[in-house]
Structures are given as C-alpha cells and as structure tokens.
Amino acid sequence: MIDELFIRDLGVIAEATLPLGPGFTAVTGETGAGKTMVVTALGLLLGDRADAGTVRQGQPQSFVQGRWVIDPTSAVADRVRDAGGDLDGPELILGRSVSSEGRSRAMVGGRGAPASVLGDLRNDLVVVHGQSDQVRLRSAAAQRDALDRFAGPELAAVLGDYQHAFHRWQANQVDLDRLVTERDLRAREADELRAALTEIETVAPQPGEDAELGERAERLGNLEELRLAGEQARQFVSAEDNPDDAPDVVALLEAARRALDRVAAHDVALPPLVTAIANAGFVVADIAAELSSYLAGLDADGARELEIVQERRAILGILARKYPGGLEEAIGFLDTGSARLLELDSDSDRIGQLSAEADADRKLVTHLAAALTTLRQAAAVQLGIRVTAELGALAMPDAVLLVEVEAGLECTVTGIDLVRLLLQPHAGAEPRALARGASGGELSRVMLAIEVVINATDPVPTFVFDEIDAGVGGAAAIEIGRRLARLAETAQVIVVTHLAQVAAFAGNHLSVVKDSDGSVTASSVRQLRGDDRAAEMARLLSGLPDSKSGLEHARELLDLAQSGSRTSDR
Hints:
Layout: E1 2-10, E2 13-19, E3 24-29, H1 35-45, E4 61-69, H2 75-82, E5 91-99, E6 104-108, E7 111-113, H3 115-125, E8 127-129, H4 131-136, H5 140-151, H6 153-181, H7 183-203, H8 209-221, H9 223-237, H10 249-263, H11 270-297, H12 302-320, H13 326-345, H14 347-393, E9 400-412, E10 415-424, E11 432-433, H15 434-437, H16 440-454, E12 462-466, H17 474-487, E13 492-496, H18 500-503, E14 508-516, E15 521-528, H19 530-542, H20 548-566
Parallel strand pairs: 3-13, 3-14, 8-12, 12-13
Antiparallel strand pairs: 1-2, 1-4, 4-5, 5-6, 6-7, 9-10, 10-11, 14-15
C-alpha cells in the first residue's frame, strides 16, 4: 500500500504531498492543474522512462518519493535487500529524480539503484490503468493475460512448466537446424582441421625449439673461429703441453706464490696473499680444464650438423608462417584444434541426440499446450459469467461478455490459444470483438469489471486508474464509483477523475489546486473534507463551486455514495 507520495518540480506541480493510505482515494482538479502528474510521479517510482520534459520550467530537476507499507518477509522486501536497500520496519521508501538534461537517479530503500530495480518491483506493488490501457485491452495479448490472471495459480503453474519446455525445445531446435544446415560446411572445416593437426603432429615442434636451433646454427656456422679462439685462450691460461714452454697464467701464478711464500714468515700480511694467489691458481686451472673440455666437445663434422639444423629450421619456419602467433600458436593449436575436431566429428551423434530431445520436448509442449487450453476454456466460461454480472451493476444491464478460446496455428511462448473478448451490448445483438465494437465508455467499464472479478483470484495491493471514467456519465458513472469502492475493500484504489459521481465514493478526496503567480503556474494538493469537499464536487458537477443547486446536488451525491457503498452488494 502507498501511504504517501511526495512530488517536487514535476510538470506544473511545484511541491505537493499526497496522503493516500488504504481504501479509495480520488484525485480531482481543474484541467491543466496537474492531476496527470500524480500518475506520472507513480510511473517514475515504478521504473517508467525518465523524460526531461516533465521537469518544471526553470528548475534543475524534479523529484518524487513514495512511502509504501509492505510485508518485510515478502518478495518485494527480498528484492529491495538484494539491491542493497533496506526497510524501516514495514516501511519502504522509493525515490526518483530527473534532471532537466534527462539524467535519472533512483533510490530504493535508502540506497542508489538502477531504475530497472523499480521496474522489477512494479508488478508486485501497483497495477496502473490509463487511457493507453483501454487501448491495450483491445489487443489479443492483453485479453489473454486477463484470462490467465483470472485462472489463477493452477494455470500459472502449468504455464511455467510449458514455457520452460517451450524455451528448451526452441533452443534445441535452433541448434539442430544449425547443425543440419551447416553440415557440409562443418565437414569441410573438420577436414581442414584434420590436415592442419596432422601437419603439426608430423613436424612435432617443441616449445622454444626455434630459438634453441637458432643458437646452434650460430655456433655451428662459426665453428672454426670458435676452435681457434678456444685453443688460443687455453694456451694463454695453461701451456703445459706447449713444446715452446711459453709462459702461461698458471705458471705465472705459481711463480708468484713461491716468491711470496719464501718470505711470508717475515710479515704477517703475506700469508693471506699467498693463500689468495694459490686459490687463484686453482680457479685458473679449472678454467683451463673447462677450455680443454670445450675444445674436445666441438663437433668434428660441424658442416653436416649445420645442414641438419638449417633443414629443421626451414620446416619449422614454414609451419610458423601459417599462424599469426608463430610456432607457439601452432603448438597451442594442437589442443584447441583437437577439441574443435572432436566436436565436429561428433556432429552425427549430436544431431541424433538433439533430434530426440527436440522431439520429446515438442510432444511435451503439445501436451502442456492442451492442458493450458483446457484450463483457459474452463476459466473463460467463469470469467464471462462474472464480468457480465459486474457489467449489469455498471449500468450495462443487457450487456454480455463472452470469452472465446480458440486454437492457433502454432505454439508460441504463451501456448497455442487465441483469446478474444467479445461484447454483446444488448440481447439480440451480434457479439463483437472489443477491438472493433466497444466505445471508450464501454471499454472503461469492461476494464473495471474485469479488474474487480480478477482481484478475487489474483489480488493486487494497489490499483491506479487514470480517468477510467472517460466517456461515461450519469448512472454509469455512479456505478463505476460504487464498483471502485467495492474494489477498495480488498485493495488500495487511487483514481484520477473528473466526475463527481466517481469521486463521491472515495474515502479520501485530494484536490490538485492551480495558482498563477505571473509567468509560472504552480499546483499543490489539498485533502478535502466537509464543505471544501462539497464545493469541489459542485465544481465538478456545474463548474461553479459556490452554486447553491450545485452544492445541494453534491451533498446528495455524497449521501448516496455513503449509503450506496453500504448496499452495493444487494
């Protein structure tokens, strides 16, 4: 239930607070005073698209805030908490601002949130009916939705199972059609993959192999220079097998050690140096040994090995050029390509599996569609009977509403049924589809009758009606008011109206008052009681709030509404 609505700088409304609360609230006011902005404000709080054109002229932004009273254990409360918001006891605060540039911000339970969260909460908080909804009631989809809501939880459960099976069937069928359509293309892709993988497996490249071969080629290509340089270095380090007995580093270090060792006893500083030179001799001796080992390891047939290395590098180069990422990508393609080839090679099995699954789901969908048809046909009879009874109470005593359920050509996400609402305005007349045969006033009453009936099986916390009484007057308007009051016994009802006959049945009457201060028109909202309410009713009836006859008629209407609401079920 909406307890209070606050509006600032929206349309012509500068600032207004609407005390709403339970029961039936009527909102009235002069043309252009901003009554529709009340519905616009609620729409913003329920996730409607923000429109910069609704921001009051000269102001940077508009702001609306609603205070709801909800069950803290409800799905709405859970969704609020999921969005990061919270409740204050049973109280939920929703807010929305719209800047003059069109930017929008939403607040849910005290925290900023995407406007889509407001949209998620919409269906569990409010049902809004306006002139556009009367037009929408002419559509087959809206008529089917109305019947499904009336049919209640049993149909909803079957519809849920049906839609789950339908979506799975459609997804499998799309995959199956794609596999069958692309079978030749996928076969060619498999052949190409198989050839590519065979080539990679034949070459058998190893990670880092191209770099390693490059280093070996560099070594083998300069083998003679390496041998000469190595030999020369070894002779300089250690010339023990040199017949010329040339001095070398090992011999020089040994001579230096002996020279110091002879006098080391005379100076404590010398023994450490003797040791250091001896250690250096050991290191140099090790280097000489490593040089000898290096020279011994140089290939005798380097030219032949170089040829083999260059051939291998050429083979790897041909393979690497086929892949943007070079040899590393080719190696990685062994895994990804093999997985893709396995998938393509299993197409026949996959097609068989999908065919079986799609066929099973098609049969299940057909079965559930038939179950939906049975439930809808049974509900259609009851809906027609109950709405017809309501129409009789809405000054359409001879009108009959017929609800037809016919099989369509194919299953859709909502079943196979085509639902049509037909209105027979009086006995002997040919029933005609609402889409072609109902006037605006008749549509208003049919829509209200449907909501009154459906609310018994699919209750909604709050209904908002924007001029549902358009095209209606006289006794019909009184009956609309009476039915709205009846609906308000089990739900909160907010009605924007221009008819005194409707407003008279409201337990809470709000008037949108227009002032003029020169260039800017501003509106505010007043809660009417007693003589003020009678004056507003008189204005609605005659355009003259001070008319004596208008005031008498207004009070008569109010008395009728008070007594009529008590006898509305008789």
